[in-house]
Each structure stands twice: as C-alpha cells, then as structure tokens.
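Section 5.1 Outputs to date
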Amino acid sequence: MATQAEPTLTGADAMAVIDPKSYADWDGLLDRFDALRRETPVVRVVNDELHDPFWLVTGYDDVMRISKDNKLFLNNPRGVVFGAKSGEDMVKEITGGSPHLVRSLVTLDAPTHPKYRRLTQDWFMPKNINQMEEEIRALAKTTVDRLLDADQKGGQYEADFVPVISAPYPLHVVMQILGVPEEDEQRMLFLTQQMFGGQDEDLNKTGMADMTPEQITQLVVGAVADFEAYFAKLTEEKRANPTDDVASVIANAKVDGEYLNDRDMAGYYIILAAAGHDTTSASTAGAMQALAQDPEQFARLKADRDLLPGIVEEAIRWTTPVQHFMRTAAEDTEVGGQKITKDDWLMISYVAANHDENVFPDPRKFDASRSPNRHLAFGAGAHQCLGLHMARMEMKILFNELLDRIETLELAGEPKRANSTFVGGLKTLPIKYTLSK
C-alpha cells in the first residue's frame, strides 16, 4: 500500500480528542470519530507544549490489530493512559524511571505479563466464578431492594439509577471477591475516585478539578500508598489464613519461585479493585438507559429472559467503558497507510472502533439482537480483560433481579455522561418505574 502524507490534527480539533468534556458530549464525540475514520483513520494529534504528540487510531481493524500485536505495540515504555508530560515526569521521578505509578497487568509486556496473568486466570474462568453465583445473586437482591426506598409520585417511583444501583453493586461484588470487609468498601471507593475519577467535578470528591497536573499526581501518589498499606495488611492475613477468594490467590502466588514484591502485589489488587468496579457500573447503567428509552424492548425482555445475553453484550459495546489505551511502537511499522516510527505513541480508541459502521451496522442504535457482536470493549489478545466472564455474569444476575421486581420503566430526565477520557459512562440516569405485584 502506498504511504500517504502524514495527516495532523492541531488546535481545537486536537484538544477535543483529549478534553474530558468531549466524552460527555457523546453524540458530538461519535460525530468527530466518524469523520476522522472516513477521512484520516490514523491521524497525528499535536497539542500544546503540555502534551506529547500521538497517533489517534479510530478504525476497528487497526485497533484490533494493535490490541493483538503485543510484540510490536508495547504497554510498558510509556504510559498506557494519556496524560500531561508533567505528570509522567513526576511519576518517573517517584518510581525511579517507570512511567507507571501502579505496576499492574495493563502496564506489563511479555515475558513478565503472561507469568503474572496466569496467577489468577483460572480463578476468573466460568467454571470457578459460577460457584459464586448465589453470593452475587444475594448482593443483587440487596442492591435492588434500594429501589423500594425511592420517592413516589403519582403511583410511580423515581430514582437516579447510577448512585442507587449501578455504582454500588459492582463495588460490593469486587470487594467480596477480594476479601475486603463491607466496612472498608467506602474507603476503597474513595481511593479509586482519587486515582481514576479526577476529571469529573461531580464524581470526584477530592477537589481535583481545581488542581494542577502536578497536584493531582501528588494526590494519586498518596492514594496508591494508602492502597499499598491496606493490601499489605490483607496479604499478611491471607497468607496466615487463606480462603477461597482471589486475594488469597494473589497473596500466596509465586513467580519464578518468589512471592510478588509489595509493589507488584499492590498493583494486582489495585487493578482488580478499580477495573472491576467502574467498568461494570458503566455498562450496567448503559443497559438500563437503553431499556428505559425503549419500553417495547423492556417488555420483550421481561417476557423472554433468553434475550438477556444480547442486552448485556450490546450494552458493553454501546457504552465502551474503557475508552482508550495507549501503546508504544517497538519498531518502525505502518498502520492504516501511515508510517509509524519506533517509539511513537498511539492512542487506540475503543469508542471509535466499537462505532465503526463497517463492522457494526447502524452503530449508534442499541440492538440487542446484533450478531455477530465482536466488540472491543474488553480489548483483545493477551491483554483482553481478565474479568470479562465476571462482568457478564454480574450484569445478567442483576438484570434478572431487576426484571423480576420492575413492571414498567421510563426515563425521568436527561441522562448525563461523566467528563472522562479514560473510563467513562453515565454519571446520572434518572428513571421512573413501577414495581411488579
């Protein structure tokens, strides 16, 4: 293929790609990605002096290729989440050269990555997690009970689905599989907000919205230290008295004959705690939004639960909670007809890929019957999400409980998405509903 001249985004167009508020304006963001995919599916993004340039990749096939080729496109040399240069420089200073404040599965490359992934891979397989179904069902029932406490108007209940249901439910589940007692859940939630929720002033409770990148990095450093201290104590307990939770697996695991060091141990816990919470919360809220906007689809689902897997899978695609990851080219190559130079930084946009009309007809439509639905919301290849089976099971269990309890469903106001370039989804979803008799 002939190599094209290097297309470049600058100015307001470039800033829109990294502006958290762009991701809250969902239709506008998708319009932008659609135009880029048609005209320049691989484009150089050059911002101001605060940010390094990078290649934005918006086509499904290119995103899939990069996701699967972990030899050519690396996780480790640069940050895996886009951020300002000053933040990365500060992290390197703190860690002694690593761009990753948290060393976890998403920051590792082969040969280290497969060794660490194997430690818990079997635990997250369906054969094992299916044994937790009754425990998760009990958590779902307790969570859905909260709908009974909502305000009533004219025979209908009203509630904001996100803080009442979709945010607390996956937090309860992931804390249970980590062996974290219920009284510590709010502490874990606060720490994850410090680490990942700083871009939205409504979600973050630490004042990050008014901080400089340097101040944010300092705050996140403190959150990581708090996480490490908490899980160091938990590790001691799980080594002395192991149970059947994943925390015991991590605490007692060995790589090359040695226990994980404190940083690697904390990184493992942190990525499971954070990734298992916000992402499932976003997909759950997305599914509920789609059902509230389509009463006929909700009625069909109540009558035929065999439709539920399609609802769950389409919600994950439609929402795409993990919106991007960054990769670094290990050598000179070509992507989408563009020359990529060794050490170039690339942003693979899962949002854009999951709305590629060449793969997903009418991609903005929520289509529970979509088949095939080979979305990239869980990534692909060696770094595919470790907890994808858990996420699907959690959502199916919750929606079975919701469908048993709710008779009618509609929106009670305008849903709003979070301002976030990395993990995104609804921050409010006002609903009206009646309960089944």
